[in-house]
Amino acid sequence: MKERLVTVSMAVLLLVVALAACGPVSEPAAVEEGETRASTETQVPTAAPSPATPSEPVTLNDWSPSEITTLDPQLAYQVLSINYIENLFVNLTNRDPETLELVPEAAESWQFSDDGLVYTFTLRTDIPWVRHDPETGKTEQVLDDGGNPRTVTAHDFAYGIKRACDPNLGSYYSSVVAPLIKGCEAVLFAEDPAAIPPELVEAIGVRAPADDTLIVELAFPASYFLSMTPMWTLAATPQWAIEQYGEGWIEPGNIVTNGRYVLHEWQRGVHSSLWRNPFLPQDLRGSGNIERIVANVLPDETTGYALWLKNEVDVSFIPDLELQAHLEQFPDEVEQISDLSVRYFGFALDKPPFDNVQVRRAFSAAFDRQTFSDEVLQGQCLPMKHFAPPGIFGAPPIDEVGVGFDPEFAQQQLAEAGYPGCQGFPQVTLLMFPGPANLQMAEYAQFQWAEHLGCSPDVIQIEQLPFRDLVDAVRGPTETRPHIFVLVWMPDYPDENNWVGDVLWCQADMNAARGRECSDLDELIVEARQEPDPERRISLYRQIEEGFFGPEGEMPFMPLCTRLMYTAKHAWLDKGSQDLFSGEQWYNWTIDWQAKQAARGD
What we know:
The chain is α+β, with helices and mostly antiparallel strands.
């Protein structure tokens, strides 16, 4: 992937973008119906979904502080959108939420060539495309021109993957996929996107010689490619529906899907609901019993939590001010989970004073991460002194690589940079996204740098901008870029390349370290991503993390911690193990319906 950027608000996972740590996020255009051509497909009406209890389908009640931005697999970047797409569409593979091992989904099996450049997927041919009518509540199986049921084929996957290479689509994750797939970058970065030579498109290394055979050719032997195959960006999409409705193909009543659920309602900024897809083969339906998912958009976590207390929603974020009381009052209705996101302070590497590596080392080593976690975030964060957290292949042990908190080292580095005791240090700006938790973190940083470096708080000027404006400022020209900025990185697949390769590699399109010049570390990143031996890759990534965040490291930014967030969850809901990379698997969640009804007084 690239990144799903999240704001630093602790209690609320503001389900906002996928920024490459500091990468920009391109907002999809507002959804409008495109030119509509006469449809040549026909449909067979069928009964509405048949839940276990027809009069009272088992329903998950949820809420979110943000709205869905898109349901287009190739365009999705926002966490909430990715959650919905995970349940509306099948992918090439899935991940066992307990072991993280790849398991078949649309692809029954796969193999790759000895040189690691060609992957061949054998697909099952019994997954139907369906369309749901919100007015009648009926889900219908889509038929082709010959009156036969349309099923998902290798051609649909080939179309979706090639679509991700199209620069005119404006996909945020295209830059993650493009470097891997042969010929994709040539199309994505074509000199004239409006007139891409057909031969360039034909040269993209994705083809479907048969309905059940998908062949993907890589640009280099990326040993982590299979770990990306559960990603939404590589999902099959219905070419005929997209050509018929244009951008409006994802609207209720238009959207054609193939996953565990169908889209019943989507009122932007207000409400959405999913219903079970009755046509999906039984072995793909998942282990859960939830027939419908109903979610409302609410203004803040306090409102959502109040609904949880009234038993009107099944899960909720917990406001910071309510956390301790909740832990005491509802010890059996709380869970603490890690989403593997890592928050960090980024630096403007191409302007003084943070163009000086010793200044960057000093500011990083002067920050007490453990106290920050314990006192500011109430234990909802695990201190980090390098980038990739536990659970990512290739990540070093959390306490073995990196400097971390070392005031003496910090003072020495700042003095050697020419600012002993912070004397003569210029005034700098710290840019953050609005919110009380973010402000609390920024003010804590001011205090830390004053206590351990001698930098008066007024030297660090805190400024706030709406998230989109913050992103624009971080990626803007050097002269207007903030000196320090707050961002969070969330992984898209469980491999170190998603961290140092997609975020820090000097040639990465979404390079988070603006102004960083290429070095020997970048050669190691390239070597590691192509290395077939897992143990050798682990060793290389340890060297890379040490080269960035060790005592003599470049310190392109300062990692702070990986989130361990408390959420309120009613006892009647069993979420089981969770896949932290490709979206919430609601189809594996189970509700004790009788217990929920009793609690609600139904």
